Amino acid sequence: MKIGIIGIGHPFESQYNALKTLNYDIVLCDINSSKLNKYTEKKYSDYHNLLYEVDLVFISTPPITHFNIIKFFLENNKKVICEKPVVVNKNELYELKKLINNNFYNILHFSFGEEILWFKENFDMKQTPIKIEAFINDPYIENNHIRFESLGLHGAYLDETINPLSAIARLYGTNIKFVDVGKVYDDISKLDYKAISHFNVNNIPTYINVIWNDNGNREKYIDLYFKDRIIRLDSYNVKVIDLTKNEILFESNNNRMYMHYINGLKSMNFNRDELNFSLAINSAIMEGVDE
Predict the structure, then answer these.
(1) Residue 271: pLDDT above 90?
(2) CATH-assigned architecture of domain 111-286
(3) Is the pLDDT of residue 213 over 80?
(4) pLDDT tens, 108-162?
């Protein structure tokens, strides 16, 4: 299958290497042609030119551009994979729900981390936590202003809350209720660089803390609070840790982002169940997006 990658951004190398490993024939597209110079694949600067070149497109552009690109390819009967989040507001999501069909796949790659899959395979999933708390930290601000190169992410809440929420939903289901969110904003870009949100996932109180900070702290983990122990699913270090016993239960030395895409793409199926899963995650996230 021939696939066009639209957008050569931060996760590109992991996407590209995963697709090459899985033997896809790749075409590249980015409005900044200089980003494409070192690659030997066929290249375009306008995504419309991919229509008759590929069977499938992988959209990895800034979220604010997703809706129009998805719409173009689905209306032309092409399969679409889109990075998270699918869109940036409720109106776009409402319009997309009327448009998308089984040709659409939202690759929520965080939920395919090796630590998430190992936990799901090795624990009794009938035992549910009494509380879940996640922390996602990235150094995307400087002196309380979002770095210019990170503005396309469209804020801490929209870009990163969806990551642990999708992983938690893989484990415990998509009955997700948004409760509230508190944000701290950059007064120049008007985007948030800190978001502390509360959801209920199948009646499990779930708290997600996203903080973009100046000190380079890149912690990314989910803590599951059971009655007798606390289990940490550490995405950044790819570990499962029993914090109560201070014991590492699982550890991988693989590149975490590469494995996210390998596992996500291997399990890719354009079916109603996966479509409903991604819509449930995106719908819950949209409840906390500013109008």
Answers:
(1) no
(2) 2-Layer Sandwich (3.30)
(3) yes
(4) 999 999 999 999 999 999 999 999 999 999 999 999 899 999 999 999 999 999 9
CA distance 18 to 16: 6
Asked if residue 133 lies in contact with residue 209, where contact means CB atoms within 8 angstroms, the answer is yes
Tokens, residue 68: 């129009």
Instruction: Report which of 284, 254, 271, 287 is spatially closest to residue 21, judged by C-alpha positions.
Output: 254
User: pLDDT-based confidence at 38, cuts 50/70/90?
Assistant: confident
Beta-ladder partners of 91: none
Cβ contact 26:20 at 8 Å: yes
Per-residue model confidence (pLDDT) at position 152: 93
Ranges of beta strands (E only) in the chain are 2-6, 25-29, 42-44, 56-59, 79-83, 104-107, 131-138, 141-142, 145-146, 176-185, 192-201, 204-212, 220-225, 230-234, 239-242, 247-251
CATH architecture of 2-107: 3-Layer(aba) Sandwich (3.40)
Numbers of helices and strands, H then E, in the chain: 8, 16
Nearest in space to 264 (alpha carbons), one of 161, 110, 116: 110
Contact between 78 and 275 (Cβ < 8 Å): no
Start-end of CATH 3.30.360.10 domains in the chain: 111-286
Residues 6+ apart with CB under 8 A from 216: 139
